[in-house]
Design a protein that fits this description.
Number of helices of chain D: 3
Number of strands of chain E: 2
Chains: A mainly alpha, B mainly alpha, C mainly alpha, D mainly alpha, E mainly alpha
Low-confidence stretches of chain D: none
Oligomer: heteropentamer
Distance between the termini of chain D: 53 Å
Radius of gyration of chain D: 17 Å
Shape of chain D: elongated
Mean pLDDT of chain E: 85
Strand content of chain D: under 5%
Low-confidence stretches of chain E: none
Distance between the termini of chain E: 97 Å
Largest sheet of chain E: 2 strands, antiparallel
Largest sheet of chain D: none
Strand content of chain E: under 5%
Amino acid sequence: MTFDEGQGYAVLATLAAPLLAALILVFIPGTQKMAVRYVAAFFGAVMLGLSIYVFVAYQVDGEQIQMSLKWVWVENTAFLGKDGIVLNLAVDGISAPMALLTGVVAFAGTITSWKINYRNKDFFILYFILLAGVYGTFFSFDLFFWFFFYELAVMPLYLLIGVWGSTRKEYGAMKLTLMLVGGSVLIWIGIFAVFNEANLGTFDMQRLFAAGNDGTLSPTFQKVFFPMFVVGCGVLAALWPFHTWSPDGHMSAPTAVSMVHAGVLMKLGAFGIIRLGIQMLPVGAEFWMPGLMVLGVTGAVYGATAALTQRDFKLISGYSSVSHMGYVLMGLATMNQIGITGAVLQMFSHGVMTALVFLMIGALYDQAHTRDMKDFGGIAKVMPMWVVFYAIAGLANVGLPGLSGFTAEFHIFVGTFQTYPVFGALAIFAAALAATYMLRMFSMVFFGPFNPRWKDLKDLTPLEAMAGALLIASIVVMGVWWAPFTDRIGTTVAALPGVVG
Amino acid sequence: MATEVLWWIFAVATVLLSAGVVFSRSVLHSAIFLIGSLGGVGAMYVFLTVDFLALVQFLVYGGAVTVLILLALMLTRTDAKESLNGTQAPWAALAGAMLLAILVSASVAVKWPGDIDDAPTTIPLETISEKLFVDFGPPFVIASVLLLVALVGAIILARQEEGE
Amino acid sequence: MRDYALFVPEYIAAGWAVLVIAIELFWPKVRKDTLAYVTAAGALAWAVSALFYIGNEPESFQGLIQSDNFTTYFRLLAAGIVAAVSIMSANYLRDRTKTAGEYFGLLLVAGCATVYMAAATELITAYISLELLSFCLYILVGYLKRDNLSSEAALKYILLGAFSSAMLLYGMSLLYGIAGSTSYEGISQGLAARDQGGTDAGIVVAFMLILAGVGFKVSAAPFHMWAPDAYQGAPLPITALLSTLSKAAGFALILRLFSLAFVVDAVEWRWAFATLAAVTMTAGNLLALQQKNLKRLVAYSSIGQVGYMLVTIAAIGYGDATVGVNATSGLLVHIVGYVVSTLALFTALTAYYNKTGDDTIVGLRGLAETQPFLAVVITASFFSFAGLPFFAGFTTKLLMFQGATTDELLWVIGLAVLNSFISLYYYLMIVRQMYLFDPIPGMVRFRINPVMWVMSAGLMLGVLLIGIYPGPAFKAAENAAKPLFQQAEPGVAARQP
Amino acid sequence: MVPLENYLVLSAVMFSLGVYGVLARRNAVLVLMSVELMLNAVSLNFVAFAAYLDPERITGAIFAVFVITVAAAEVGLALAIVIRLFRNRATSNVDEAAMMKW
Amino acid sequence: MGAEQAWLLAAIPAGVFFVLALFGRYLPRGGDYLGVAAIGASFVLFFFVAADFLSFYDFEAHKTFITESISWSEIGNFKLRQGIHVDAITIVMFAVITTVSLMVNIFSVGYMKGEPRYYWFFAVLQLFVASMLLLVMADNLLLVYISWELVGVCSFLLIGFYWEKRSATEAAKKAFITTRIGDVGLLIGIILLWKETGTFDIQQIIHAAEAGEIGQTYLFVSIMFVFLGCMGKSAQFPFHVWLPDAMEGPTPVSALIHAATMVVAGVYLTARLLPIFEAADGALLVVTIVGLTTALLASLIAFAQTDIKRVLAYSTVGKLGLMFVALGAGSPAAGLFLLMTHAFVKALLFLGSGSVILGTHHNQEMDKLGGLWKKMPITGTTFFVATLALAGLPPLAMFWSEDELFASVNHEWGLWALVLAMLAVFATAIFMVRLFIRTFAGEPRDRQVHEHARETPLVMTGPLVFLCVLAVVSGLFVFNGVGSALGFPGGIGEFVFLEEPERYAIDWTLAGISLAVAVAGVLIGAYVYWGNSLVRSTRLAEAMPRLYAALRNKFYIDEMYQYVIDRGVLGVSYVVSWFDRYVVNDTGVDGSAQVTGYSGSILKYLQTGRVPNYAMAITLGVVGLTVAGLLVRA
């Protein structure tokens, strides 16, 4: 076990916190619902604090990979040579903001779930396991553990949606789980191939990255297997046409799960494309990126178009997620520094704003038990704060300057224009479509004549407002002052292989 | 020469009897054909000069096994007149024929190593016993356990319990 | 060399088997669960004595039986399985039969047979051990005499078993003819010395017949068809035994046989293993999709698992000794993971079945409400089968496939991973029954036997431990795998096509 | 002299007839009898190989001894099961013992 | 307090926005005084900034500007800086914005009294003004875009202020989306310019364009994209549809939008980037044609509208068109001068109509008004002045600016453009007179309304008077003398210019024609509509029924859009949704799952439960494998 400068402890603690929470919850009787909530909220806060620490402590002008911790797991056994499997946790400029995102969304999701009453102990256990998976994926620099955590993050979803969800939850849960696992199947095959081809006897990603760069992984090999990783990760990132779990899954999922799922989990897919695609298979990436660009643009326009005529809130958010993740993929496909930085920014931005959107949808649905927008009207009268929060999320979605969405999309557009101006123009057009569907929803739901059927709706509870405020703060900070993010992301992105400055 | 003629007679008889086992329309006839067939194999052992095995063959098969089978046939007899062959019999013939072709081609095609003089050599009983008890002691022990297990199993499975 | 001390553990086991039978013989009113715990104690004693053999120098008994780490590995595994199954059987048998002594005795004997299958380095020994195991299983499957399904299962099993062992024997006889020996080493040398002129139909036929025989044992498609019926008809703990001990034994035999004796002519059989693996995993998983009975479902799912495991045998054929060690270590560690998961599953199922007598999938409705602990154990086992992380299946399957990855086999491994994805669907359908639906009306929260509780918990912890920290298990598996490939002399290296 | 191949072909024919019997026959006892044919073919093979090929000229014969042993025990056990089933279901036809399928 | 601190102008209202938005509801009177104070502070600060700027303005070189910027973010070579750039254009825009918005703010205190969400109105108003101020002082296109969008969202919030009304919500939506479509172009244009120059800094881009570092076609395409944004924001044809609907917002907001903040953004940006338009061949012609088309179209439509605010809205569209015509003629001075004078006049008109609306208890249909002058003397008088000013009568403000416009158009494009522009002015004069007559003169059409009408309080009439004064005198800035007195000798023509400063000198021919056109327009209008009778106009309408219907229905442009949106965009969306649901999901995803399950349900019948079948499987397996093996080896 080696640490660099003791900060590895922070990373380990961040990863361990949700696991510890789950473990503690196992031993709390299910009838003690309040105790469960307090424990969950406490650990949510701990995770938030640690995440912020990790983000802040990442030194902008230091090395790319910091706060590393190595803990040899299996080595010198059979095909595993030195450092065969290592619990290798570290942070780089891309995972630092992702960790922050996870902390923010996780905390918001935790306190949003306060009102869950049905088997809330089980809920929180699964929820924290999911979060551990997310953290682990962001922090792992060992392919084995990377995939381990990646799968871990998907695993609890079936139950989380199936038990605590709504609206065709069985179908949604099953489809979501199967599609996501289907994606990881491809990754898995790819991992076998990479390990075999590199023949280093190690899952250490940094050594595998080096192998990808120095030609140990032959160009042909990279070209064959890159699509596998991209499609595999892409499923989780709602890569068109593997996105259909997104509308249905989000429609079924409970609030906090939607928040974490759309907010963080979908980012794992894009993160995987960076880690496994761009970093490990640079030649393949260079070869295939135009294809990814086409798919990304298709997703961006397609999602926005499909969202135009939806009537269910969550379907709108589901399709808009498809659209926004399309931007992320476009950003990655640019293979230039600005574009990829923009993609990571968009990952963060989409994370917080979608979490906010789902938080708001949940706050309404819990009272109204319908999500058909046609049923609503003039809700601003009874839920003013809700409307304001939702509107901020929606406007961030639309790409309004001053909110995070613009920062991210702007960088992506700039990056895309560097290489593919026509696609860039299409993407900007899709952003205008986003305005259309968002405002359509605003005017149908928030405004217009008040429907007296909803006179008993209550505004946000203090807890929900707190969660929302945290998310809004993130949205605004990133929208106004994005240098802390770009500083971290940009330098790391510049060091990615094959990336143009 | 005489051996060869004799061999052919026994061989053909064995085949015919075996065919009788599987083609006969009567259960009982089949059983009787089986005795003959097994006896034919015993005769083959004699041709191969492994007399001991021939003895075993006649004792174990000709005696014990066939008696057991006949007994079972008696015990499981039903009055219903029904076909002895299942619906897939034609396909079974086809499958059998294919397998036969494969096995025969394998037998013929291989140039068997060590087949020097094209004739069997006598295997004396002493060698067999020595091999069996000295060189192959462990399998022998295991086989005895196996027999024990079969015995116990047959008992507990076939035993009629009260209330039956 | 005739060192009888090599088999002290089996003496203990066999002696204990006699003891158990004798106890009931002389004291017929003994509680059946007492017998079960006595058996478990015997199995533990057996295991403890086996511990002394870990790391010993390989030693052969007259070239027939090899005592090395590989043997010890399976010895410990068999002892563990027998112990677990006998505890599982305690309450199950008490409610269903009058006599149980033979049952437990046969369990121990089956365990010994497994060890000999793993240890055998000679065809006769291997064959006779295999038959011994089969006999025990035939009897155990049919042990519930008044149960029509049990008898039917036993009949199908024994008829097909005899049929397939005849196939196996015919293959062995051809092989004997070609190689002129029945010892693995002799076969290896015989094959190496074999004249290579012309198409050698004999060796192909021999290998395929042997493949059919051992394939039947491990229930590889298309030799698998007995498995679902036997699994469904057998008493529940015996279903566990079938899917653990029988498979482990089959693979032990295959591993030693193919790595020592047949590796010379790998080019003749490796493609067949790859094909069988592909067919088996696909058939198993597709068929499992439509099952309504839990035991049948587990049968098909275990067929799918066998498909995965067969890939490693193909890998032994495709690669050199290094790949062989890698693949074998992977397979061995996966077998352990699979066995522990299966045992955990069956412990929970048995506990549940003792209460309800229902072995259909819909019967599990709302188990998360009525007995949450069992629901957790069952879910964990199924997730382990499906290869989800935290659970043994993920890690061991990954290690196994990784060890087996060669360029030629990547497609099978891809198919395997795809199949494990399909399998997730039907596992989730069970999880769905337990967690998403309300219990059947009238079902209330119930308690389970504390022994079963402890064992379920222990096995589940085992599943988690292997899943999270596979290092020690993997190391042990490698140590067990090494002896199989050390003897391969340079001159007897695999022929390339 | 009779060449080795003759024995082998004889054995192959017997074996195939046995296989046909197993595949075609309905009665469990007849199936068992067919299996016996197959096992005998195998024994014949072993002995023939032993007599013609084996330098030590013996292992095959030993194998045959074991095969005969196992075959006999197998018949005993199988018949017990057949009788068991007959008692439960009043039939010994294998295609009627199909309660479990699909 | 120097010009470097000009950012404070925007910062103060922005800060107040946050205070009001968060705590406004708890403050007495909703904190309206804070709003007025903030804008007032900006207004006062403007004078300091202007004074400071003029104090070191280099009247020889005329190229004075002040730039302040800080580094914002850095990704490799992609360095973003944010800062302010204050030059003559900025100062003019400051003047317009701060003045008009202060007046609007004060007016609102009276107008909005007792409305729900009173505090919210003032809060957004602050943000609106702040964004606009930021827009005009931004030194780079990114900041321009940011503030541009903020302006858009504020207008959305304000137009949709009465969100309980479906029409208000729809209007807000329409405004936002329509301008947003233009913004797509703007963003594309900005990024295209960046791609070629590697910077967002306006001055650097202009420099690069002027130096010919950018290819002609490329430059033309990029600047046209940018111009799309300007067209959207400034409601040029075919994006003009949102502006008339925008009057659904509270009337002071309309005043602000039409005069100082929203719509002039496009004009401002075009003026700011005019050197680039110049550098790109044909760009100015496009600007001119767009401007002329819009001006004529809007003037025609305005004839047939009966809602006071709607008429005013179309007049704004028309005047904006003229501003673009001025810019298209290459004269930022004319454009900005027109912008300024129009801002004061139009603010006055809107506030006046607001006063009417409040005074008549929310009545804005001309058909129900009439004869209000006596009841509302101050409103009436100021409105009268404004009407004449808009009609272009000297010596009121717009006469001078339009004269400058005509001069530059004549100079740049010649007669055809001049005639068309004058036609637009002529039409404006007619319908403005119509508006005034039908609202204030003649007999009241609705007794009820008339009896309850009363003059509005001082807080509203005060701004009216102030703006009225400006509407009279602001045209004089064009003169050297006035300019010198105020610190910018040479008048506006030497203050704001593109290449060469030009001092204003009256071309008597042009001025005469212009005067004649205006007077003719006023007289014709008076003739047709005088005396509160619609006899003549009705006869006119009946003479050309189809034309009248077309005008009344705004040339069916809205209907066309509606059709395109319903059938086109939404149709595509339905198709995509259908495709997604049934092809991608049900066929692709669920379908493959079903095929898998189905194959399982077929395959399971192989498992017949019969021993012979099982044995057959084993046999066939062996045979198959062996045959395959032999074939493989052969």
